Amino acid sequence: GGPRRLLLVSNSTLHGGGYLGHCQQHIKSFLGEKVKRVLFVPYALHDRDAYARTVRERFESLGYGLDSIHESCDPVEAVRKSEAIFIGGGNTFRLLKALYDNCLMQEIRKRVLEDGIPYVGSSAGTNVATISINTTNDMPIVYPPSLQALGLVPFNINPHYLDPDVKSTHMGETREERIRQYHEEPNTPPVLGLREGAMLLVEGDKATLQGVTGARLFLRGKKPTEHEPGTDFSFLLTGSNLQN
């Protein structure tokens, strides 16, 4: 197997573009020419057939065949045979529960971390690639057996990160406040707030911010920091990033 290869995208659709339109070139260069077929995991949405149709159309336009895991009579075997995995957005709790229910957690981890097959995540698919889904924006509409996720990276991501709107009269909590509350708990890992249009490319022990927007990094007990596309986030991949 090769080193882990992940492309973790904040969002599937960017204003003014079609499904995965803003990141299709990133996906194509990430998957390359060796991959012929992609295994899609549509568990985050209720209508899996419609979801698979949308995703198949996009991936076929990029030159890749697509198999949806929900059409397989043996999901574990589908993961074992896969050349690449794409997990799309929707509700993170629903997605994680289905991954546990179908006994796919260990199998996906093994394929990605040991066998080195490429993993693309978008939104909820990015959330489940991290250490846990504690920093998702979604409502807990179902109850997974654990909030522990695939752990393909040793930190959390907050997809669709939104900056506080200084002109807004909305007095509810900002995303920044919610992440700070998470970090009030002991031993909580870093949280990378990926704005719409941002993505993180992980190749082995190297992590790089890509896309058209920046990201905000939250470390427990420290002020959040602002980062532009091109930032090297490799230090987040080592265990020493953890704050006490």
TrEMBL record:
Keyword annotations: Cytoplasm, Dipeptidase, Hydrolase, Protease, Serine protease
GO process annotations (BP): proteolysis
Location(s) in or outside the cell: Cytoplasm
GO CC term (a single one): cytoplasm
GO MF term list: dipeptidase activity; serine-type peptidase activity
UniProt catalytic activity: Dipeptidase E catalyzes the hydrolysis of dipeptides Asp-|-Xaa. It does not act on peptides with N-terminal Glu, Asn or Gln, nor does it cleave isoaspartyl peptides
EC number, as in UniProt: 3.4.13.21
Principal place of residence: cytoplasm
Pfam family, one: Peptidase_S51
Family membership: Belongs to the peptidase S51 family.
Classification via NCBIfam families: PRK05282.1 (NF003642)
Functional note: Hydrolyzes dipeptides containing N-terminal aspartate residues.
Protein name: dipeptidase E
Origin species: Rhinopomastus cyanomelas
Highest classification ranks of the organism: Eukaryota, Metazoa, Chordata, Craniata, Vertebrata
Recorded name of the encoding gene: Aada
